[in-house]
Amino acid sequence: MGIPEVYIGEKWFDINEVLNSYRDKTCGAVDIFLGIPRSAPEDGDIKELHYESYTSMAEKVITEIIQEAKEKFGIKHAVVHHRTGVVPVLVPSFLVVVWAGHRQEAFEACRYIVDETKARAPIWKKEVFTTGEENWK
């Protein structure tokens, strides 16, 4: 398959390439989560996010999370891509795609992968506000 299962970096893959790389006639459900930086009033006026990672460790952790999801939910495939570097508001930064036989497994596994990646993978973000202020999360 041409698209990597786990990728952390500045490159962004076309969603159609991702979907076509993992086509599987046994999968009747594909669940997609796309994380997009936002600038909501309760967060302040965010201009962009700066993502940094311990890339080799993040890829290892996410590979483990995908394996856990396969065992726990019976999914067939999963892809996780997370951007690093500067990502402006409204530009996608986090992609999780899950293929499964049925929608319930796909939904549950996708949420699990998103939540576990956010909790466990060494990826950090700095919010940069239009005022010039910065905040690491």
Would you kindly provide a written description of the structure presented here, covering whatever features stand out?
A hairpin with a 4-residue loop joins strand 7 and strand 8. 28% of the residues are buried. This protein is 32% helix and 34% strand. It has 137 residues and is of the alpha+beta class. The mean pLDDT is 95. It is elongated, with a radius of gyration of 15 Å. Helix 2 (55-73) packs antiparallel against helix 3. The strands form 2 sheets. Strands 1-4-6-2 form a 4-stranded mixed β-sheet, with helices on one face. The chain has helices at 15-21, 55-73, 103-120; strands at 6-9, 29-35, 46-53, 77-83, 85-88, 94-100, 123-129, 134-136.
Summarize the entry for a quick read.
By secondary structure, this protein is of the alpha+beta class. Helices cover 32% and strands 34% of the residues.
Shape: elongated
Largest sheet composition: 4 strands, mixed
Q: What is the SS-derived class?
A: alpha+beta
Distance separating the two termini: 34 Å
SSE pattern: EHEEHEEEHEE
Radius of gyration: 15 Å
The tally of helices reads: 3
* Regions with little confidence, pLDDT below 50 for 5+ residues: none
